[in-house]
Structures are given as structure tokens and as C-alpha cells.
Design goal:
Pfam family, one (chain A): HTH_IclR
Shape of chain B: globular
Number of helices of chain B: 18
Structural class of chain A: alpha+beta
Strand content of chain A: 15-25%
CATH superfamily of the largest domain in chain A: GAF domain
Radius of gyration of chain A: 19 Å
Domain HTH iclR-type (chain A): 15-77
Number of helices of chain A: 8
Protein name (chain A): HTH iclR-type domain-containing protein
Strand order of the largest sheet of chain A: 5-4-8-7-6
Largest interface: A-B, 61 and 44 residues
CATH architecture of the largest domain in chain A: 2-Layer Sandwich
Radius of gyration of chain B: 23 Å
Helix content of chain A: 40-55%
Helix content of chain B: over 70%
Oligomer: heterodimer
Distance between the termini of chain A: 27 Å
Largest sheet of chain A: 5 strands, antiparallel
CATH topology of the largest domain in chain A: Beta-Lactamase
Number of strands of chain A: 8
Order of helices and strands of chain A: HEHHEEHHEEHHEEEH
InterPro entries (chain A): HTH_MetabolicPath_Reg (IPR050707), Tscrpt_reg_IclR_N (IPR005471), WH-like_DNA-bd_sf (IPR036388), WH_DNA-bd_sf (IPR036390)
Order of helices and strands of chain B: HHHHHHHHHHHHHHHHHH
Largest sheet of chain B: none
Number of domains of chain A: 2
Number of strands of chain B: 0
Structural class of chain B: mainly alpha
Shape of chain A: elongated
């Protein structure tokens, strides 16, 4: 699991305890509830004994909790005390509110995905239009419009939008518009899940959602 | 990969805080609901373990009992028991770090080895806690009586007074326990520390009166026989049992994954140090004053021989208090084990009820406290002396405890493997603990056949009873067995963004 742009060289050099603890917290947040000690140890490249110790310390202080199966971990209520982070992360306008607004206007599914750090992550899936195959969407980037945007970005051939038929659902398709930060780097994407005939004119779709796209770009900055 | 991120890039964490993720599979309530949750502080949790060990009572009585087996090897036996207890504590702490379980050793075993072995461990635990509670009640009544005899004269020595004291101590225990865990823990701690102080003061007086030659005498004793030392180690270990009982407050403790393991570690270390010091002082003192080193009176006789008879009388009161604390703490843990079994349906579900206002397992208490008083009353009626009763009760209790320890420590490697957190070091310590305890248990029973045949027969009878109950439960309540190992798991309010 290497990530473009990150330096893979620190394995074997012990990060400081605080640094390690924060890394573990970040990894649990990234991987989601239920991630196990072994998975965390592998993803972070930390020795297992170190990982267990950090995990148990974080559980003792209630920053992490064990899931009822005792193997998985989730973020505990104490994490909310890291309020500085919350302030930094909370934008002036909540992206979720903008997406909800958009959902009211579009007859179809509206999803928001993040590309932060070069990884595709679904952050706001339309509850009325569940994804047909989330696993495939995340694993096979070329199968979706959202993934295609990321592939193009990695090839240094950025696209403003992309559209694709949905493999698992004949007659349906997906349109994705790129959201960029001030430097022009791809940070997020808005995806519309629609009947295939509505994807015939993607430029007009882009125009349709342009106001919300601009607001989202501002909110995500 | 995230390990290399400087801490200012906690991207996912920031997002999770801004919008906490939905977590599937975490319920609003745990199966242990009803008991108070996350309210009892570190000092009170420590009090639970210290009370259950009752180091004051142990200090005063156990060195003499060890000497019967180990001869001149008392100090070696105490040190060996200390080491073994440290291994057991470290192993049980691996469980206590990960799950908050009022059923303590029973639940730990269930998590590693499944329902059958857990049932056996549960039976051992009930016997262990139950008989040590009786031990506490008998000891408290005995030392109270000898205190009263000094104050009030011969009428206090009658059998009726002894019986009344047994019932009285039981009633005090019930009243304190029903009021809630915090009161019982504080009462326990104050009592235990006070009596320990009295004993340590006495030991200091004894040491201050010894000549240098008398001070080194215990170390120049002839070499003891190996078999005797092993048996002595087994006896010495009985003075440690109860240190794990903080685990039974897993739900009630605040920050349980911190306070419970810390309590277990500190209790084992501290109590072992006190035992070593006290054994040494008693050996040196008994040698110097020419006191026969047997029976329960060694400390008291040391007191009178050092012209501090007032301290000796005070000591009776302190020991009575310490034994009461032992009874309270053991009943606390026993009631929570019974409560857990009731919640699971292994025992009748009625004993899994909680008194809503006080949040104590009153049905379990109402079951176990009368039994704890009834057995000593029967022994008393049968004409046993208090000292005979104490020796009998400690053997049965130790057998139950050690058996439960063996199973719980043996369960650790399987448990850690199942959750994917095993390591060679924890496995090794667990194997040493389980193996050592197994050897000690067998030695202990073998030695006790001679000295306490009735106790060994009772242990066998209880084992048969437990096996029959197991067969009955398996036939009629197999679902309860399948669900064995309920504990106070994470609830939605523990989660980030939880309510």
C-alpha cells in the first residue's frame, strides 16, 4: 500500500510515542471502524509489539475503543477533545449541506468523493441512491467516472469531468465533475448517478451543477 | 504509510471528528446493563483487590502455615509464590487490558477456550471466592471474640457468642455490599490499611529489638527439601489469591482498561513485598524469642514477648477488621460472578437482577451472603474450632482459585490468536503461569490429603456437583452455554460522536 508522493523510508526507525499514537489514530480514522491491530501494524509499517502497545494505551485513555468482537477498533469519544483538529477541519460552509441542496435539484443520485492524498474515498453517499458496487468502485478505478478522474490526474492529463456506464446496472451510468483546490490539484469529485440517456450531453450536466461545484471547491479549501 | 505523516496531516482524523462515522455492530446497551458504569475511581478499584487479598490477615497467619510445609524454606517459598503470582498477574492483565468483565476469570476463559472450560473455571471461581468469603467471616468472628474476651472476660468466650458474631459479621457485610460498590470499597481500604499499619508497626518493633546475629539467622537456615518448598509455595500462593478481583469491577471502574491492570500489577508487587518482609521478621523474631512457629498466634505472641501487649490486643481488632474486609471484597467479586452467570442464564436468571436505585446485584448478594454465613455456622455447630475451620476453608478456596487461574491463564494464547494480537512473549509468560500453577495445584491437593482430608473430599464433591450442573445446563439451556462470555462491551456512547 504505497501512496504517490509519500516517503516510504521510515520503516524500522521508531517514531516517537506521540507521533506513533497520532498515526494510529489517523489510521483507524482512515480505515474505518473495525480495523484490526494486524491491519494497522501492516498499513503503518510499525512493529507489531509497538502497535499493540500504542493501541492498548489509546484504549486505556479512551481515544480508541474495541469493537464488541474485541479484534476491531473504532474512534472513541475522547477523540472529540482534539478540538483544534475539528476547528481546522470544519469549513465555513459544510460540504454536506451543499450536496444535500444539490440532491434536491437533481433527479438522480448525488455522491461526493475525496481524492485527498491521491486516494479515492467516498465521503458522502446519497442515501436514496445506494452505490451498486462500492467495493469495485474503490478497487477498480477504471470502472467508474470518479475513478477515471483520478487515473487521468495520475497520468498528468487532468479532466474536468468524466462519464461512464455503470457495469453492474445496465441502462444506468455515472457522471463525475472534478473539484480542484487553489493550485489546480484534484481534491474531490461530485458524481451523479443517472439513467444512461441523460449522460449523452455531459457538458450540459457540468453546467447544471457548476454553481454547487464552485461552492464545494470553496468549502473544501 | 501514515506513520510518516507529520502530525499536521491527520486528514482522516479531522474528517472523522467533523463528521463521526456510523459504526455498525455497536449497541446502545451492554449485556451487563444495570450495574453502575465507569464511575468507580482507581483508589476504590485498588481497594477491591487489596481487600480480597487481605494482606494483613495473610501476613499474620500464612507464614506459620507455610512453615508447616516448607520448614526452613519459608522465604524461598514466599519468593517463588511471588514470582508465580507476578506471571499470573501479567497474563490476566492481557485480558483486563482488552475486556471489562464482571465475570472475570470465567469470562476470560470463555473468550479463549469456549463454554466448557469456562464453566469449569466459573465453578472454580465461585468456590474460590465463596470459601475465601467464609474464611473472612470466620476469621473476623474469631479475632473479634478474642478481642472481646480481653475486654469483657470469660463470658465472651462461649459458643453462642461465636455463633452470634458469625451472623453479625455476615449482616455487616450484606449491609455494606448492598449500599453500593463505592462504600464497600472505601470501608475495605481503610480497614485494610489500618490493620496493615498496626502489623508493620509491630514488625518494626520486633526488628528493632533483634541483635545482628538474630537478624541474619533466617538466611543461614539449613537447606530445605525441594518437595516441602513446592508445597510451601502452594500455601504461600493462597495468601496472594484475590489480587485479580479488581477485574470483577470492569464495568464499574472508570477507565477500566487503565485502572484494573494497574491495580492487579501494584497489588501483586506490593503484597509480595509485605509478605517477604513479614515472613522474614516473624522467622527472625520467633527464632530469637524461642517461639514455636506454628498456629495462628505467632504474631500475637511476638507482640506479648516484646512487651507490647496493648499492640497485641489492638492487633486482634485489626485482624478482625482485615478479615471483614476480605469477606466484603470476596463477596463483591463473588456476587458479580454469580450476576454474570445469571445474565447468561447458566444460573437462574433471577440472580442476574440489579437493584435499580443502588445499582448493586442484590439478588446475587441475597443468595451468596446467607450461604457464606451458613457454612461456618455448620462447622461451628459440628464442634470445629475457628482455627480448624480456617484451615479447612482456605484449602477448599485455594483449590478453586488455583483451578480457575490455571484455566484462565491457559486461555490467553488462544484468545490473543483469535483477535490477531498474539506475541511470543505473552504466550511464554502464560505457559509459565499455567504450568507453574498446575504443578502447584496438584502439589497442594496431594499435600492436603494428609493434613486436611475433609477439605480434599469437599473439593472432589464440589467438582462432581459442578460437572452434574454442567450436564444439566447443557441439556436444558444449551443456548445459555453457547452465549457464554458476556462482558461489558463498547456501547454507542463510548464512540466518537456517540450519545
Amino acid at each position: 500500500m504505497s501512496r504517490p508522493g509519500s516517503d516510504p523510508g521510515l520503516t524500522g526507525r521508531q517514531p516517537s510515542a506521540v507521533h506513533g499514537a497520532l498515526s494510529v489514530l489517523e489510521e483507524v480514522a482512515r480505515a474505518g471502524p473495525g480495523v484490526t491491530a494486524q491491519q494497522i501494524s501492516r498499513s503503518l509499517g510499525l512493529p507489531r509489539a509497538t502497535t499493540y502497545r500504542l493501541l492498548n494505551l489509546l484504549v486505556q485513555d479512551e481515544y480508541l475503543v474495541r469493537m464488541p468482537d474485541l479484534a476491531g477498533f473504532a474512534l472513541g469519544h475522547k477523540v472529540a477533545l482534539l478540538a483544534g483538529l475539528a476547528a481546522a477541519a470544519a469549513p465555513a460552509e459544510n460540504p454536506h449541506d451543499i450536496v444535500v441542496e444539490l440532491r434536491g435539484r437533481i433527479r438522480g443520485g448525488v455522491h461526493l468523493a475525496s481524492y485527498r492524498d491521491g486516494v479515492l474515498e467516498l465521503v458522502d453517499v446519497d442515501p436514496d441512491f445506494p452505490l451498486s458496487d462500492e467495493r469495485r468502485l474503490l478497487s477498480d478505478l477504471s470502472s467508474s467516472a470518479l475513478g477515471t478522474l483520478l487515473i487521468a490526474e495520475r497520468r498528468h492529463d487532468p479532466l474536468p469531468f468524466s462519464s461512464r456506464p455503470t457495469p453492474a446496472m445496465p441502462g444506468r451510468g455515472c457522471f463525475a465533475a472534478a473539484l480542484r483546490d487553489a493550485t489546480g490539484a484534484l481534491v474531490a469529485g461530485v458524481a451523479l448517478a443517472l439513467p444512461e440517456q441523460r449522460l449523452a450531453e455531459p457538458e450540459s450536466l457540468l453546467e447544471l451543477i457548476a454553481p454547487e461545484c464552485r461552492r464545494l471547491e470553496a468549502a473544501l479549501r | 504509510m501514515t506513520a510518516q505523516n507529520p502530525p499536521d496531516r491527520l486528514v482522516a482524523l479531522g474528517r472523522a471528528i467533523a463528521r463521526p462515522p456510523l459504526v455498525a455492530g455497536v449497541a446502545r446497551n451492554s449485556p451487563m446493563a444495570g450495574l453502575e458504569r465507569r464511575t468507580v475511581g482507581f483508589v476504590d478499584v485498588l481497594a477491591q483487590s487489596i481487600g480480597a487479598v487481605a494482606p494483613a490477615a495473610g501476613t499474620a497467619t500464612v507464614p506459620a502455615l507455610i512453615a508447616v510445609q516448607a520448614g526452613s524454606g519459608v522465604l524461598i517459598a514466599v519468593a517463588a509464590a511471588w514470582l508465580l503470582a507476578i506471571c499470573v498477574g501479567a497474563t490476566l492483565n492481557q485480558f483486563a487490558l482488552r475486556l471489562a468483565a464482571p465475570g472475570s476469570l470465567y469470562t476470560f476463559t470463555a473468550k479463549g477456550l469456549g463454554a466448557g472450560p469456562a464453566f469449569a473455571a466459573g465453578a472454580g471461581l465461585l468456590v474460590g471466592y465463596g470459601f475465601i468469603a467464609m474464611f473472612g467471616v470466620v476469621g473476623a468472628a474469631y479475632f473479634l471474640q478474642s478481642f472481646l474476651a480481653v475486654l469483657a472476660g470469660s463470658w465472651a468466650a462461649s459458643g453462642w457468642v461465636a455463633a452470634a458474631l458469625l451472623v453479625g459479621v455476615g449482616a455487616v457485610c450484606f449491609a455494606v455490599l448492598r449500599r453500593g460498590i463505592r462504600l464497600s470499597a472505601r470501608v475495605t481500604l481503610v480497614i485494610e490499611l489500618a490493620s496493615l499499619l498496626v502489623i508493620l508497626a509491630l514488625l518494626a518493633v520486633v526488628l528493632s529489638r533483634l541483635s545482628p546475629a538474630e537478624l541474619v539467622a533466617p538466611f543461614t537456615a539449613p537447606r530445605p527439601a525441594v518437595g516441602g518448598v513446592v508445597a510451601g509455595t502452594a500455601v504461600a500462593l493462597t495468601a496472594f489469591v484475590g489480587f485479580e478481583s479488581a477485574a470483577s469491577l470492569g464495568r464499574e471502574a472508570a477507565r477500566p482498561f487503565l485502572t484494573v491492570p494497574r491495580t492487579i500489577r501494584w497489588t501483586v508487587l506490593g503484597v509480595g513485598a509485605v509478605y517477604l518482609l513479614s515472613s522474614y521478621t516473624q522467622l527472625a523474631g520467633a527464632g530469637a524469642f524461642g517461639i514455636a512457629f506454628d498456629g495462628g498466634q505467632a504474631v500475637a505472641r511476638l507482640a506479648s514477648d516484646t512487651d507490647v501487649a496493648a499492640v497485641g490486643t489492638l492487633l486482634d481488632l485489626g485482624l478482625a477488621a482485615s478479615f471483614t474486609a476480605c469477606a466484603i471484597a470476596s463477596l463483591t467479586a463473588l456476587a458479580r460472578a454469580v450476576f454474570t452467570l445469571g445474565r447468561e442464564g447458566v444460573l437462574p436468571r433471577a440472580v442476574g437482577r440489579i437493584e435499580p436505585l443502588r445499582k448493586t446485584p442484590y439478588r446475587a448478594l441475597a443468595l451468596v451472603v446467607p450461604v457464606t454465613v451458613a457454612v461456618p455456622l455448620v462447622l461451628h455447630a459440628a464442634g470445629w474450632s475457628p482455627w480448624q475451620s480456617l484451615e479447612f476453608l482456605i484449602v477448599v478456596s485455594a483449590a478453586g482459585y488455583l483451578f480457575a487461574y490455571v484455566l484462565a491463564t491457559a486461555a490467553l494464547p488462544a484468545f490473543l490468536r483469535r483477535i490477531g494480537e498474539s506475541s511470543a512473549r505473552t504466550d511464554l509468560v502464560a505457559v509459565v503461569a499455567a504450568g507453574g500453577l498446575g504443578a502447584v495445584l496438584i502439589t497442594y491437593l496431594a499435600v492436603s490429603v494428609e493434613g486436611e482430608p475433609v477439605a480434599v473430599i469437599v473439593v472432589g464433591g464440589l467438582a462432581v456437583l459442578a460437572a452434574l450442573w454442567y450436564l444439566y445446563v447443557r441439556r436444558t439451556r444449551s443456548r445459555a452455554l453457547a452465549g457464554a462470555g458476556l462482558f461489558d462491551h463498547t456501547t454507542s456512547s463510548d464512540l466518537l460522536g456517540g450519545s
